[in-house]
Amino acid sequence: MDLTLTSTKTLHNGVEMPRFGLGVFKMKNRDEALAAMAAAIDHGYPAIDTAAIYENEREVGEAVRASSKKREDLFITSKVWNSEQGYDETLRAFEASLERLGFDYLDLYLTHWPVPGKFEETYRAIERLYDEKLIRATGVSNHHEHHLERLLAKANIKPMVNQIELHPQLTQEPLRAFCAKEDIAITSWSPLARGRLLGEDALTEIAAKYGKTTAQVVIRWHLQSDLIVIPKSVKPERIQENAGVYDFSLTAEDMKQIDSLNQDWRSGSNPDDLK
Ligand SMILES: NC(=O)c1ccc[n+]([C@@H]2O[C@H](COP(=O)([O-])OP(=O)(O)OC[C@H]3O[C@@H](n4cnc5c(N)ncnc54)[C@H](OP(=O)(O)O)[C@@H]3O)[C@@H](O)[C@H]2O)c1
C-alpha cells in the first residue's frame, strides 16, 4: 500500500480529501493553538479539522494565512454546533464560521451531532451551501445508520463524509460497512481514544517490532483500514511523531490483532443519547 502524507480519498463527488490531518479540539489557548497549527502545516499536514464549538476558527484562519501554503493547498473542515441547528440557523452559523476563519469557502462542512428534530433541516442547509459553491463537500458527524437512512431518504446530495468516534476499542464495523455501501467516507475522531489505549500490550508489542510508538501504530491502523484520520496534539514533537507513519506497514496479522481490541467503548457520547 503506497500511502503518503498527502494521500487522498476520492469523495463520491470527485473531491480529493486528505487521508490525514490535524484535529484541533481542546486547543482554546490562542498561542498554543497557533503554534500547534503552524507546526502541523510546516510538517506537511494537508488538513485541519475544526468546529465552531472549539472556539479556534480564528486561529485556523490565521495559521493558514501565516503559513507558506496557499489556502487551496489545505483542506479545512468545520461543523455546525447543536444549538445552531435548523435550516436558517445553519446558514447563519456557516456565515459566522466563514467570517471567523476569514475564508470565502470551506472544503467540508458537517452537522456536528444529529440533534433530534433538527438534523435533517441542518443537512438541507448544508446541501444549499454546496449548491452555492460555498463548500466543496457535504457531510455529517456522529450519525448512526438510522440517522443516515433518514437523510438518504430525502437528500438531493448524499453526504460525502461521516465523521465518527472510531479507534481500536470502538471499531464500528457495521456502520463502516453501511457507509462503504453508500460511498460515504469515514473520518475517525478520537483516533487515539484520547490516549487511553496507547499502553495496550498488543500495541506495545507491535510498536516494538517496527521501532515505532503505539500512537504511530494506531494511526497506521486507521490509514490501512481505509479511514481518514485526524489525531490531535498541541505538542510539536507529537505532531511530528503522529505524521511519521509512512515508512512502515502493518501486516494482515497485525491488523487483525488490532481489530480484536474492540470493546465498543466510547470516549465520548453515544449519538442516540442526544436530547
Ligand atoms: N465530530 C466530533 O464530535 C468530534 C469529537 C471529538 C473529536 N473530534 C475531532 O477529532 C480530533 C481528534 O480527537 P481527540 O482530540 O478527541 O482525540 P485523539 O486525537 O484521539 O487524542 C488526543 C489526545 O492524545 C494525546 N496525544 C496525541 N498524540 C499523542 C502521541 N503521539 N502520544 C501520546 N499522546 C498523544 C493528546 O495530548 P497532547 O495534545 O497533550 O499531545 C490528546 O490528549 C479532534 O481534535 C477533533 O478535531 C470530533
Brief overview, please?
This protein is an alpha/beta fold. The protein has helices spanning 30-42, 57-66, 87-101, 119-131, 145-154, 173-182, 201-210, 214-224, 236-242, 252-259, and strands at residues 8-10, 16-18, 22-23, 47-49, 75-80, 106-111, 135-141, 161-165, 185-189, 228-229. NADP nicotinamide-adenine-dinucleotide phosphate (NAP) is lined by residues 23-25, 49, 112, 141-142, 163, 189-195, 198, 213, 215, 230-235, 238, 241-242, 268.
Describe this structure in words.
This protein has an 8-stranded parallel sheet. 47% of the residues are buried. The protein contains 10 helices and 10 strands. It has helices at 30-42, 57-66, 87-101, 119-131, 145-154, 173-182, 201-210, 214-224, 236-242, 252-259; strands at 8-10, 16-18, 22-23, 47-49, 75-80, 106-111, 135-141, 161-165, 185-189, 228-229. Helix 1 (30-42) links the parallel strand 3 (22-23) and strand 4. The model has no long low-confidence stretch (mean pLDDT 97). The chain is globular, with a radius of gyration of 18 Å. Helix 1 packs across helix 2 (57-66) and helix 2 (57-66) packs parallel to helix 3. The longest helix has 15 residues, at 87-101. The termini are far apart. By secondary structure, it is α/β, with parallel strands linked by helices. Bound molecules: NADP nicotinamide-adenine-dinucleotide phosphate. NADP nicotinamide-adenine-dinucleotide phosphate (NAP) binds next to helix 9.
